[in-house]
Input
Amino acid sequence: MGKPQLIMTRHAAKDYKSSVKPIWCPGCGHFGVQAALFRALEHLDLPPEQVAVISGIGCSSRLPAYTECYGFHGIHGRALPLATGLKVARPELTVIVASGDGDAFSIGGNHFLHACRRNVDLTCIVMDNEVYGMTKGQPSPTTGPDWHSKLMPEGTGINPLRPLAVALASGAGFIARGFSGDPNGVAKLLVEAIQYPGFSLVQILSPCVTYRPEERHWKQQVHAIGMEPTTNPVEAGQRLFADDGLSTGVFYRAVLPGYPGTVRARSDDHLAAIEAELAL
Amino acid sequence: MITPISPAGTIAIAIVGSGGAGAITAGSLLLEAAGQFGWYGLMTRSVGPQIRGGEALAMVRLSSMPVLGHGDRFDVLLALDWCNADRFVDEVPLDADSLIIADAQAGDPPAAILASGARLVTVPLIDLADDIAEGRPNIVALGLLARLLTLPVKPLVALVGRVLNRKRLNPTYLQQALMAGHSAAAALDGSVRPPPLATDDGTRWLLTGNEAAALGALRGGVRFVAVYPITPATDLSEWLAPRLHQLGGHLIQAEDEIAALNMVLGAAYGGVPALTATSGPGLALMSETLGLAVASEIPAVVIDVMRGGPSTGIPTKSEQSDLNIALYGLHGDAPHLVLAPSSVNDCLVVTEWAVRLAEALQCPAIVLSDQFLGQSQAVCDRPPTEGASASPRLTARHGVSSYDRYAVTADGISPMALPGTAGGQYTADGLEHNAHGTPSSRAVDHRAQLDKRRDKLLRYDFGPDWIEVDGEGDLAVLTWGSAAAPTLEAATLARAQGLAVKVLVLKLLSPTQPARLERLLEGVRRLLVVEQTHSQQFYGYLRAHYTLPEAVRVLNQPGPLPIRPAAVLAQLLQWR
Output
């Protein structure tokens, strides 16, 4: 046995990028999210094999295949429970969920509520473009009531969801928003979110240039929250309800008990005792 | 193969009462005491959906040989009250040789029960209980039944004290109540004939099918469980929860069944064998995720403790009607495993096998248990320590280069890299993909991966455990699951009448084994199919996948009543 070598390998952003060419439209906001994620992983210097990116279905959910990490591209809306199972079974891994506004808030809405409550140490990235892009332009839960589409020609007529307020009410401990046009800003948020010991939600405004070209203007409209994150849920609630949906930064960062509370070391020693219980 | 004995060697006792009266508790204690004394036995509970104030029935059958199911008649019906007993008339067949024991205070037995011609004996259970502090009629009744069965008193007192101590009942008062019943039974001495005791005194276990399945899962290596509560599968998960924790595993109560199975896939993707337990409505919700497990080649086990359907159906009663959804409920061409235990302790063996097969074949396995198997409690032989084997999951090593997760191999099984394995990074995908795992809609990739997922099941040698065979003859019965118990008993009775009957009990329902079944059916000219469904689902499945003899008859009956041995026997005798 030779002397163990101490090699300090720094991972570069490109080490996290796979050779699969994204099928996103030119100019899609999700490219910025991808770049930000790689920068965050580089900053954290996580070995790619220790990171798992889990997704459901939608343009956003294509992300795992574009990374050099472990990935699971599951079914529509179910990324959070998939990630929950992985993280609880393999707590040493860094588990990141890549989702969109339809995937996370509509078909996956129930899982979203309970992932916020459960507080498993996951980072949930929701790329929010206020539209179903992959199915070619239907309204999502965050779409405004007047947006016209083929499926809803008169608009939905219903108010958009406030996902960050829902997350707060559901018990999430880390709530932030970023803008994909600012990959460095998003990378900073993601570093903080991944380091947060519990469920962290990062909504990323990510324009759909094809079906919501007007979202290009988000670049001029987004603005920093301009306040330090609060640990007070009442204050966070006030901020989120006063918010215009375009402010970026960390709204809320609480100290919460993690899940699961206590873990025993895995051991089969007890199996014989369990079997003995069944003897007459 | 366990061959049940003829009814002459059994005794069957039913205890009925309104929910909360303690009929099930008394039945369960009676079974345990009888097991300690030296009988094999089975107790099945039949309850309504109400938590309190509904109806409850405990059906206990004891024998010198393992008891797989219930017979055609009951020797004794003891009523703690008659409040809702008429709902059980069909479940407790009585005849002129049967004995009804009831309290005169409880009023007259329902006319439908008296119509059996059974002898009615009144015992003042309520007054006897009232004379004792904390006295309960169900404990008085237990003392009475113990004497009727010639059970020794001392171990019974100890047993009842130990079990009910958890409910903080005073052991002195319990003993007094038991003895009150015991003394009151003096007048009944010799009125029933208990069967002989079992001749061998090997280690016996007392467990339900749900507990057996749960233990099979643990033996198979399951250390992650995610479930959503549903009758009649919840007690399986409740049994697992503290025991998984003791083994360093996890149980998550998920927000719904879809989440539960996705959590299972996440854990299994991470390398930890994982399972969920549900019933028909939950299995329906899991269909899409099962397809994901097929496409992404993730092992997962779903135990479906079947109940009457469709929709909410009859949640507390048994039926075999989830066969079709288990076999065909997935969209696309989605080969997967479907297995079925045929007795309470077989739930252990088959579930352990299912876990090992799912791991070896990297695909989902559905275990079709049912309410009868899951919630019946049996005194049985200690199950074998060595279950059916299968090689462990094939994983990829560290430092692999140019790794293709979905490489097409000779046996269809490709090494699976677990997260953390350097060089093995891949994206598991429900999208069709090429060998590397990259999404692809090319015809050649779709065909190659469909073939791979089919061939790994077709080329696998499942060994001898895929079917149970009992007896020989040109008249055969083909059945599965809990329908096996009355079938095997009927075959025993038929043989006693000189009829040669072969019984085949299918354990592995998917993938099908047509060539192997054909060999087993060689020389069989007449085939009777027995199943507990309304639409002959099992028969339809057999017709679709197997070559059957020319003469086929079907005995099918929906739940909630069990198929009786006499019904199967009548079919066999008619077909001599």
In short: Residues 280-296 of chain B form the longest helix (17 residues). Chain B has 18 helices and 21 strands.
